[in-house]
Design brief:
Number of strands: 4
Radius of gyration: 18 Å
Strand content: 15-25%
Number of helices: 3
Largest sheet: 2 strands, antiparallel
């Protein structure tokens, strides 16, 4: 997929002139004679500053414009995914969603907490 989008693969270093972002998106479409049409589109997360060797200013601009173009569509439901324990006041997606959906009628915040396991601990608690 990375080759098709012209971006480096995970773990591959960023070469000069190469971007880590693309206008290509992950899109899953469900439809059928007895169901409503549903598209799920995963766009990259926004960021405020480029990281040397990882992202560029061009990546930052591309991601921002891509997110804005999707969330302004009134048919889109915005899942604003935020990683904990990050201060939500600093999350740009929330202000972008508020601007596109001032009444919050099609915005849903999702707070993710990273779970870590020690070696050998596994997920035995999950299967109970």
């Amino acid at each position: 997929a990375c080759d098709a989008m012209g971006i480096p693969a995970p773990g591959q270093s960023l070469e000069p002139g190469l971007s880590t972002s693309s206008n290509d998106i992950l899109k899953i479409e469900l439809s059928g004679p007895s169901r409503q049409h549903l598209s799920i589109i995963d766009v990259p997360g926004s960021f405020r500053a480029p990281t040397y060797g990882v992202t560029t200013k061009e990546d930052m601009t591309l991601v921002q414009s891509m997110v804005e173009s999707y969330i302004k569509d009134s048919r889109i439901i915005v899942l604003a995914v935020i990683r904990a324990p990050v201060d939500i006041a600093t999350q740009e997606i929330l202000s972008m969603a508020e601007e596109a959906d001032p009444l919050g009628q099609r915005t849903l915040g999702v707070l993710l907490e990273r779970m870590s396991f020690r070696r050998g601990q596994g997920m035995s608690w999950y299967t109970k």
